[in-house]
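Justification of computing resources. Each target in the renewal requires a structure prediction run like the one illustrated here; the chain below, 254 residues long, is used simply to show the kind of job we budget for.
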Amino acid sequence: MAYQRGSLKKVERKEGVTWVLRYRINGAEQTPIVVGLVADFSTEDEASLEADRLGLRVRINCGISSRERVRFPELAEYYLKVEFDPEVTASPKSANTKPILEHYVRDVLIAKWGDQIAEDIEPLEIQKWFNALHNKEQYGWTTVSKIRGIMNRIFKIGIIHKKVSKNPVEGLATSTKTTYRAIKITPAQTLLILRSVMGTMLYFTLVFVVGATALRSSEVLSLRWADILWEERKIRIVKSWKKTGVDGDTKTPS
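Resulting structure tokens:
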């Protein structure tokens, strides 16, 4: 197949008017590759230089069809598989972490990026989405940061396992500001709350455990019987999120 440069075209997208690179493989037109916003590259020559900088023309001449390039849901599900496989990852996540990760991956990330080809998702698109999660969807910045960390990890795993060649999340940032303020409750107030829920054993147990251990609500809800270390008089919990996930920890009831 002769070397092709493809053709640049402006298309309307929800982010704004966008330059895309059109190309063919074996005579069949493929899904255009996003180059960038017209607002950032006002002329076709500027867009062409950006396409070369990104190596897009090299890519379209490698004979890789869009059907062979991994889509985001496939990449995300592969990440979930790897993160819980002790034979594949050096630090597999605990069973308690699984439903939390699955929620963020499937209900937030896959729900947003749908069936898009992973490598075609642009950093600017992602950054705007992070901001929208906070400003429009009312997510706290700490939660947005968790989502950013998971998406970043998805692409890192993809690169390690040769599913993708780049990570559009790398270098993106989210605010560390939070409006959370802890509410201090006295022992007397705790007893009043316990008395008010004595008729419902589930609520009573949850409040009692939180009051006795200072666990977060999310930590209590993720507890399993295996997390109660009876002989050691400790409870195994899930610590705060780090950049790559969560780790196990223990807490001794007071």
